[in-house]
TrEMBL record:
Pfam families: Lactamase_B. It comes from Paragemmobacter amnigenus. This is MBL fold metallo-hydrolase. Coiled coil: none annotated. Belongs to the metallo-beta-lactamase superfamily. Keywords: Hydrolase, Metal-binding, Zinc. The keyword Kinase does not apply. Residues 50-254 form the Metallo-beta-lactamase domain. SUPFAM superfamilies: Metallo-hydrolase/oxidoreductase (SSF56281). It comes from the Bacteria.
Amino acid sequence: MALTDTCAAFGMTALTDSRLVFDEGIFTGAEAGHVGTLLRAAGKTEVQTHCNAFLLRSGDAVLLVDTGTGGLFGPSSGRLMAALAEASVAPEEVTHLFLTHLHPDHVAGAVTPSGAAVFPAAEFLLTAEERAFWMEESHFSGADEALRGWQRLATTALAAYGDRLRLVRGDETILPGISVLSLPGHTPGHAGLRIEAGGRDLLHMGDVVHVQDVQLSDPSLGVIFDVDAAAARATRLRTLEMLAQDGSAVTGAHLLDPKFGRIERYGPGYRFQGL
């Protein structure tokens, strides 16, 4: 099964690091039976998601967006290196590394088990708010060991790239035609990208949607991984409505196949239509 999907119009290639199934308990704010009803309407019986990274080329620059799970989520995860090889890109060819945020399914593939940088020539781009959140010990005092482990992984990645870390802000242009899009809530510094080509836009919405079969039909539903549930919900509602109104192309860190499409209003919610 192919691990890549390319949108030639924007010079962007999706890299499927993982194909995962979650328990319905990951959703917050769902009444009993509601998630099952939404899954059946989508023709599904499981809560399916993918963990996607993305490649973009801009002149001589090779930008990698997120790095996948590093195999932390079992045998169906950690395929980033295979996907890069399928795209004919070696790790040392990556010049820029943009992390939408520092959850393990996005950052684990950036470092080796010993804590070394996987991408030896890459500048590491991250919002200042995201770095500040994970570096602040008080945010994790009293946290369970799993969350503490997430923090250790985040700080390990920050240390691995050292002086190659560049903090960016919302709306900042990081490469020609590629700018940061602030999407706070899932984490305080969660961000996506806006890519412009030929007078058209493609929006990488990061983790605005984790499970498209459920959260597009009912975007009020959050997931247990949201740091600020109310802010994440507001960002999701605002972003989906913006995309439905302006018709921009869209992709995301957890979309299934196809990876590139558009958001349309559908009933009380939305749906994803491939390009």
